[in-house]
Design a protein that fits this description.
single chain; Rossmann fold; 9 helices; 16% strand
Length: 271
């Protein structure tokens, strides 16, 4: 695993990366680059266990986990970005990294940013993997969300809770609250028909933040959505059970790529 510092909107952006392997992946490996988008108050620290696992898989393309503006070690002198702005920022990051199209995985708020990217820049997204998506009942009120954080913290490992507190401290309370307001104002279901990318919705069976019905409703509303429950893990499966997350995500994205290639061949044959 390595760290790169692309400059986006004039700011150096910390971006952790799992480099591509030396061998071309097999049919179980997706061939596009993979972006990993973190949740509220977090940073790329939340994805480091997954990046280590992905690096060990020898994927044919790299995986990147950026710090959003104002998070981790990425500075942002302006105000907190809303979900559409985070989607647009991710597209600009892809430009700097010279990535034309990528698969995108998100956790929590990162799912909302990934959906915004897929809505607003559909040609840039191959497939989506949404882990613990914060939509619907999870964001009915500040107190509902705060209670969810508390309940989830009771079942997350101490190592993750300590990392979470460190990431929160890096972001600071004012930006956290401002971003939470943007997060709660966002309604991905309002324009869900614009998300045409194949999408896997994942939820940890012990997730205290995202109710099962909310995750299932999102998967059902997506034009090409699937749902899968990850047993024995909570909201932060990408940190605490990275092998489980990687297995489910890579299998789905590789299958989605095969379907894309078959559709392209049929289109060329018909033309």
């Amino acid at each position: 695993m390595r760290t790169v510092w692309p400059v986006v909107d004039g700011e150096k952006t910390r971006c952790r990366a799992a480099p591509a392997g030396y061998e071309v992946g097999n049919e179980a490996s997706p061939r596009m680059p993979l972006l990993l988008l973190h949740g509220l108050g977090c940073s790329s620290d939340a994805w480091t266990p997954s990046l280590r696992v992905l690096a060990g898989r020898g994927l044919p393309q790299p995986a990147y986990a950026p710090d959003f503006p104002g998070c981790g070690r990425t500075r942002n002198a302006g105000g907190a970005l809303d979900m559409d702005e985070l989607g647009d920022w991710t597209a600009r990051l892809m430009d700097v990294l010279e990535i034309e199209r990528a698969h995108v995985a998100g956790n929590s708020l990162g799912c909302q940013a990934a959906l915004a990217l897929a809505r607003r820049h559909p040609a840039r997204v191959g497939g989506l993997a949404l882990l613990g998506p914060t939509t619907g009942p999870a964001l009915e009120s500040f107190w509902r969300y705060a209670l969810g954080l508390l309940l989830d913290g009771l079942v997350e490992p101490p190592a993750y809770n300590l990392t979470l507190l460190k990431m929160y401290a890096q972001m600071g309370l004012p930006r956290y609250v401002a971003t939470l307001r943007h997060m709660m104002a966002d309604d991905p279901l309002a324009q869900i028909d614009r998300v045409q990318a194949p999408c896997l919705v994942l939820r940890g069976g012990k997730d205290g933040i995202v109710p099962e019905r909310a995750a299932r409703e999102l998967a059902a509303a997506l034009p090409r959505g699937e749902y899968r429950e990850l047993d024995s893990t909570a909201h932060a499966a990408g940190f605490n059970t990275p092998e489980l997350f990687a297995d489910a995500t890579l299998k789905f994205l590789a299958h989605a790529e095969r379907e894309m290639r078959e559709a392209d061949r049929e289109l060329l044959a018909g033309g």
